[in-house]
Design a protein that fits this description.
By secondary structure, this protein is of the alpha+beta class. The chain contains 4 helices and 4 strands, in the order H-H-E-E-H-E-E-H.
Protein backbone atom coordinates (compact mmCIF):
# COMPACT_ATOMS: atom_id res chain seq x y z
CA UNK A 1 0.00 0.00 0.00
CA UNK A 2 2.78 2.39 0.68
CA UNK A 3 4.10 2.49 -2.90
CA UNK A 4 0.60 3.36 -4.11
CA UNK A 5 0.22 6.25 -1.65
CA UNK A 6 3.63 7.68 -2.58
CA UNK A 7 2.80 7.61 -6.28
CA UNK A 8 -0.52 9.29 -5.49
CA UNK A 9 1.31 12.00 -3.53
CA UNK A 10 3.72 12.46 -6.46
CA UNK A 11 0.80 12.84 -8.86
CA UNK A 12 -0.84 15.38 -6.54
CA UNK A 13 2.40 17.36 -6.31
CA UNK A 14 2.88 17.24 -10.08
CA UNK A 15 -0.72 18.36 -10.64
CA UNK A 16 -0.37 21.15 -8.06
CA UNK A 17 2.84 22.38 -9.75
CA UNK A 18 1.13 22.25 -13.15
CA UNK A 19 -1.83 24.31 -11.85
CA UNK A 20 0.51 26.85 -10.25
CA UNK A 21 2.48 27.12 -13.48
CA UNK A 22 -0.71 27.60 -15.54
CA UNK A 23 -1.96 30.19 -13.04
CA UNK A 24 1.33 32.06 -13.40
CA UNK A 25 1.09 31.95 -17.21
CA UNK A 26 -2.54 33.17 -17.16
CA UNK A 27 -1.54 35.99 -14.84
CA UNK A 28 1.33 36.97 -17.14
CA UNK A 29 -0.97 36.88 -20.20
CA UNK A 30 -3.58 38.96 -18.37
CA UNK A 31 -0.95 41.57 -17.43
CA UNK A 32 -0.02 42.00 -21.12
CA UNK A 33 -3.58 42.74 -22.24
CA UNK A 34 -4.72 46.36 -21.80
CA UNK A 35 -7.83 46.63 -19.69
CA UNK A 36 -10.63 49.12 -19.82
CA UNK A 37 -10.41 51.58 -16.90
CA UNK A 38 -14.07 51.20 -15.95
CA UNK A 39 -13.60 47.47 -15.47
CA UNK A 40 -12.40 47.16 -11.88
CA UNK A 41 -14.21 43.87 -11.32
CA UNK A 42 -11.91 40.85 -11.53
CA UNK A 43 -12.84 38.81 -14.59
CA UNK A 44 -13.12 35.07 -14.57
CA UNK A 45 -10.37 33.06 -16.19
CA UNK A 46 -12.40 32.22 -19.32
CA UNK A 47 -13.30 35.93 -19.69
CA UNK A 48 -9.63 36.88 -19.37
CA UNK A 49 -8.67 34.34 -22.04
CA UNK A 50 -11.46 35.54 -24.32
CA UNK A 51 -10.31 39.16 -23.88
CA UNK A 52 -6.68 38.17 -24.60
CA UNK A 53 -7.73 36.30 -27.76
CA UNK A 54 -9.80 39.29 -28.92
CA UNK A 55 -6.87 41.65 -28.23
CA UNK A 56 -4.47 39.43 -30.21
CA UNK A 57 -6.90 39.34 -33.15
CA UNK A 58 -7.19 43.15 -33.02
CA UNK A 59 -3.40 43.45 -33.08
CA UNK A 60 -3.20 41.07 -36.03
CA UNK A 61 -5.75 43.15 -37.98
CA UNK A 62 -3.89 46.38 -37.16
CA UNK A 63 -0.62 44.79 -38.25
CA UNK A 64 -2.15 43.67 -41.55
CA UNK A 65 -3.58 47.14 -42.20
CA UNK A 66 -0.18 48.68 -41.45
CA UNK A 67 1.52 46.27 -43.84
CA UNK A 68 -0.96 47.16 -46.57
CA UNK A 69 -0.46 50.87 -45.92
CA UNK A 70 3.31 50.43 -46.01
CA UNK A 71 3.12 48.54 -49.30
CA UNK A 72 0.91 51.26 -50.78
CA UNK A 73 3.29 54.00 -49.62
CA UNK A 74 6.32 52.14 -50.97
CA UNK A 75 4.53 51.70 -54.29
CA UNK A 76 3.66 55.42 -54.41
CA UNK A 77 7.25 56.36 -53.57
CA UNK A 78 8.61 53.97 -56.21
CA UNK A 79 6.29 55.51 -58.79
CA UNK A 80 7.31 59.03 -57.74
CA UNK A 81 11.00 58.17 -58.04
CA UNK A 82 10.37 56.43 -61.35
CA UNK A 83 8.47 59.44 -62.70
CA UNK A 84 11.14 61.81 -61.46
CA UNK A 85 13.88 59.76 -63.08
CA UNK A 86 12.04 59.39 -66.39
CA UNK A 87 10.76 62.95 -66.77
CA UNK A 88 12.17 65.30 -64.16
CA UNK A 89 15.66 63.93 -63.67
CA UNK A 90 16.89 65.07 -67.04
CA UNK A 91 15.62 68.56 -66.26
CA UNK A 92 17.08 68.44 -62.73
CA UNK A 93 20.61 68.00 -64.09
CA UNK A 94 20.28 71.31 -65.94
CA UNK A 95 18.57 73.24 -63.12
CA UNK A 96 21.08 75.88 -62.05
CA UNK A 97 21.21 76.50 -58.32
CA UNK A 98 19.80 79.82 -57.12
CA UNK A 99 20.30 81.59 -53.83
CA UNK A 100 18.52 84.43 -52.09
CA UNK A 101 20.09 85.94 -48.98
CA UNK A 102 18.20 88.33 -46.69
CA UNK A 103 19.24 90.02 -43.51
CA UNK A 104 16.43 89.88 -40.96
CA UNK A 105 17.41 91.82 -37.84
CA UNK A 106 20.40 90.08 -36.29
CA UNK A 107 19.87 86.97 -38.38
CA UNK A 108 20.41 85.84 -41.93
CA UNK A 109 17.87 83.93 -44.01
CA UNK A 110 19.23 81.94 -46.92
CA UNK A 111 16.90 80.38 -49.50
CA UNK A 112 18.72 77.92 -51.73
CA UNK A 113 16.96 76.33 -54.72
CA UNK A 114 18.72 73.39 -56.36
CA UNK A 115 18.00 70.47 -58.64
CA UNK A 116 17.46 67.00 -57.23
CA UNK A 117 20.90 65.81 -58.26
CA UNK A 118 23.07 68.37 -56.44
CA UNK A 119 20.96 69.46 -53.46
CA UNK A 120 22.96 67.62 -50.76
CA UNK A 121 26.29 68.98 -51.94
CA UNK A 122 24.95 72.53 -52.29
CA UNK A 123 23.27 72.44 -48.88
CA UNK A 124 26.38 71.05 -47.13
CA UNK A 125 28.63 73.64 -48.74
CA UNK A 126 26.26 76.48 -47.84
CA UNK A 127 26.24 75.33 -44.21
CA UNK A 128 30.05 75.04 -44.28
CA UNK A 129 30.39 78.61 -45.57
CA UNK A 130 27.97 79.93 -42.94
CA UNK A 131 29.88 78.18 -40.15
CA UNK A 132 33.18 79.37 -41.60
CA UNK A 133 31.91 82.93 -41.38
CA UNK A 134 31.09 82.51 -37.70
CA UNK A 135 27.30 82.28 -37.91
CA UNK A 136 25.23 79.86 -35.90
CA UNK A 137 22.66 77.92 -37.90
CA UNK A 138 19.43 78.07 -35.92
CA UNK A 139 17.08 76.30 -38.30
CA UNK A 140 17.27 74.53 -41.65
CA UNK A 141 14.35 73.07 -43.59
CA UNK A 142 13.79 71.80 -47.08
CA UNK A 143 10.97 70.76 -49.35
CA UNK A 144 10.87 69.03 -52.71
CA UNK A 145 8.62 70.17 -55.53
CA UNK A 146 8.88 68.25 -58.81
CA UNK A 147 12.53 68.65 -59.88
CA UNK A 148 13.54 71.34 -57.35
CA UNK A 149 14.66 71.27 -53.74
CA UNK A 150 13.99 74.41 -51.69
CA UNK A 151 16.27 74.87 -48.65
CA UNK A 152 15.60 77.59 -46.09
CA UNK A 153 18.42 78.22 -43.63
CA UNK A 154 18.24 80.68 -40.74
CA UNK A 155 21.48 81.68 -39.04
CA UNK A 156 22.37 84.11 -36.26
CA UNK A 157 25.39 86.35 -36.53
CA UNK A 158 28.28 85.35 -34.31
CA UNK A 159 30.22 87.61 -31.96
CA UNK A 160 32.72 88.58 -34.67
CA UNK A 161 29.99 89.42 -37.20
CA UNK A 162 27.58 92.24 -36.95
CA UNK A 163 24.58 92.97 -39.12
CA UNK A 164 25.41 94.84 -42.29
CA UNK A 165 29.13 94.25 -42.76
CA UNK A 166 29.08 90.53 -41.86
CA UNK A 167 25.98 89.93 -43.94
CA UNK A 168 27.55 91.53 -47.00
CA UNK A 169 30.68 89.36 -46.73
CA UNK A 170 28.65 86.17 -46.21
CA UNK A 171 26.32 87.07 -49.06
CA UNK A 172 29.29 87.67 -51.37
CA UNK A 173 30.85 84.30 -50.51
CA UNK A 174 27.58 82.43 -51.00
CA UNK A 175 26.88 84.20 -54.30
CA UNK A 176 30.39 83.32 -55.56
CA UNK A 177 29.90 79.70 -54.52
CA UNK A 178 26.54 79.42 -56.31
CA UNK A 179 27.90 81.23 -59.38
CA UNK A 180 30.83 78.77 -59.55
CA UNK A 181 28.43 75.87 -59.06
CA UNK A 182 26.32 77.07 -61.98
CA UNK A 183 29.30 76.61 -64.28
CA UNK A 184 30.39 73.29 -62.83
CA UNK A 185 26.92 71.72 -63.27
CA UNK A 186 26.51 72.82 -66.90
Amino acid sequence: MEPNSSSRADRKTIEKNRRNHMKSLYSKLNSLVPHRPHKEVVSSLPDQLHEAARYIKTLQMKLEKMREKKEALVLIEDQRVSNASSSGKAMAVFRPPQIDIREVGSALEVVLVTGLDQHKFMFNETIRILHGEGTEVVNATYSVAEDAVFHTIRAKFGENNYPGHGAARISERLQKFVHAANYSFD
